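Standup notes
- HV: blocked on the assembly model, inputs below
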Amino acid sequence: MKKVDIVIVGGSAAGIPAAITARRHYQDKTICLIRKEERVLIPCGIPYIFGTVGSPDKNLIPDGVLEKNDIELLVAEVLSLDKENKILKTSGEDVQYDRLVLACGSEPVAPPIPGLDMDGVFPVVKDVNYLSSIQESLKDAKDVVIIGGGFIGIEFADEIKKSGVQNVTIVEIAPHCLSLAYDDEFCIEMENHLISRGINIMSGAKVVSIAGEGTVDTVVLEGGKSIPADVVILGIGAKANSDLARQAELELSADGAVAVDRNMKTSDDSIFACGDCATKVSFFNGRPSALKLASIATFEARIAGANLFGIKRESVGTVGVWSTAVGDLAMGTAGLTEAMARQAGYDIVASTVDSSNRHPGGMPGARGTKTKLLFERSSGVIIGGQVMGDVAVGEVINTLSACIQKKMTAEDLVMFQTGTHPALTASPIVYPMVNAAELAIAQMK
Amino acid sequence: MKKVDIVIVGGSAAGIPAAITARRHYQDKTICLIRKEERVLIPCGIPYIFGTVGSPDKNLIPDGVLEKNDIELLVAEVLSLDKENKILKTSGEDVQYDRLVLACGSEPVAPPIPGLDMDGVFPVVKDVNYLSSIQESLKDAKDVVIIGGGFIGIEFADEIKKSGVQNVTIVEIAPHCLSLAYDDEFCIEMENHLISRGINIMSGAKVVSIAGEGTVDTVVLEGGKSIPADVVILGIGAKANSDLARQAELELSADGAVAVDRNMKTSDDSIFACGDCATKVSFFNGRPSALKLASIATFEARIAGANLFGIKRESVGTVGVWSTAVGDLAMGTAGLTEAMARQAGYDIVASTVDSSNRHPGGMPGARGTKTKLLFERSSGVIIGGQVMGDVAVGEVINTLSACIQKKMTAEDLVMFQTGTHPALTASPIVYPMVNAAELAIAQMK
């Protein structure tokens, strides 16, 4: 039996940074990362396999970073966890650990719809061979239906459309796509953009069954309408992969994730968990959070990896910062949306500004952008932001994330010293975040 | 004589936001903005007149924002200021004010070089007709020399080269271009980029005279070397335009700028000043700062405009956040450089990471980026950052600016919750700012 100081189970967006962080903080410890996959997919890159990058082989996390950090890699399935004796039984060697990090990720949720087991119906499983088989099925497909209009759904739709499929339809149960992350006015912009790219959107529509004879041929909606489908992709969401923790009788949260405290420690003092498999709470009110994002996984991994032999870091809960892009339209969101904030009981001030991302407007790449900020009225603290525009939106949202995490007020934002440049940003006179904050202050009086 | 509650002198990056901010905070006051220019140039856009946008007419600040905010515009030269009677004499109507904001801007510095008065030698004066005359002179120019390799100098050089001039040479007295804003490794990248675009760079070179017979034909360097020149552009820097304040016997600072306190109030309680004409101090040590940026002007204007009838806002000093772009290479800087920090007496930890701006690397627009962060060793507080990469750098630097302004520590940065996306940003596993912070922490131990 192999003896290792630190064992990480899982080799993706949580496992890798957990291992690297452990190495940085515990230079004299031995570290072993166990994963079942020969090759690990970049999770956020999966939709792009089907159009832009063209193959799962071009969307892999390289193993070099493990070698570089002196982290042993064991490709094997973990069969059981004996937490009393600190032993993992695996399909290869058994391993004894001193500290263990569970970074087991998540699995796609299967909605309660008859017909899911038919050929041609694919949940998004993060496996190279599986994704290659989806790609194979898409080759001859004429009608593709994506169930779920979240960011995975819209990205899959656009990439599959790009690959040459004639009819691509998103079916979303909510009134709008992306409505868990954006307020309606942003969702509608993205829907219109998708429609302009030839994608069909059926929102406010519930799938009641998937029909066919062994192989799918139709998706049936509530009300009787049916859509032809050679291939169906399920982009409904994901649930924590906590089988190992359950078997070992670690405490789980109500949603079945591995329960962790703010230090990412489980109910066993030698075992930590991070990423999609671990339970999460909201930065805003401490309630359970359903967010599962690679960027949250890396954040939690940096906590878990540092805390293994002495607590150094603490999670403030998930802010929820993410972005998406379809063609030349990018959108980012951080914190609460207006709808979420009102539902959570906040008295809010919202302000929105439309502006250009260049100055003067004749500079190359100039386009309209929309920035919406949300503040708690009595304190003036920023609790959310949404932005829409060009590729730089992916970083604008991180500026807003910094403001939210540091609980900056509208006054702080107005006093924000920005860098601006004609070829890169909005004019300093109308820098959207600053301008929106000033407009919010006027409403607070 | 016209009587107005609030008078702003100057209509550019300080004057406009001062007026707008005053309107937002004092809705029942009358506001008049006096400026001498019929049309106002976007200051940062001036280099782009010569290549990308093609004409001064395409680089103007629209007046619509004044009308929209019920701000009267008076196009006239202010001839004198009588602060006892609160009267401005102008080339048009005289105006009596209750509160006055001086937003008079700056003028190009003329270096002590013989020959500056020759035809073909142009300081960068912010005037539509004047810039049109530079453009006219460039039409037949074969050899253009830019004196000064700051951001104005390199942007002018690249735009003039783009416009078709055969030989464009930057002469910079320091060992590298941009060295007031970037550490050497960044400066060298930009210099190599400029060279690859056909621009000649002579750094560590001092101009001793400009020669010719009435019209410039040669720029002579220390050591005797001379460079042919049909046109010479001076991009040396700017000095505060404080003539009106001097005449009115307002207090000036040692460098001749209008002295202001942290509320942007001058030595007269009814007069405020902001932007290039006002004295500035560093965010880091409170010493005088020579920075003159449109984004600082707007920041100060939002303070001055809000404080006119009751102090509400205070300047923390200038952080110094700016970016530049040449072709597809963008660079941003915030706070102190390593060289500046060491000179100021900081014990610093510097860390640099090179990474991609996309994940996987096959995503469109993927390119290498460089991120350098500087932390004060004992506190771990971030005091500077430099980034190099694609267009999104213009916003990345604003995330760093938020971190610097809120005195975040390396630990805060490691705990930063980012938004990431394959088509927009680096991978969350190697998000450069977070990664650089973790590497810095390892050095602090």
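- HV (later): unblocked. Chain B is about 25% helix and 25% strand. Residues 110-236 of chain B form a domain with the FAD/NAD(P)-binding domain fold (CATH 3.50.50.60).
- Next: hand off to the docking folks.
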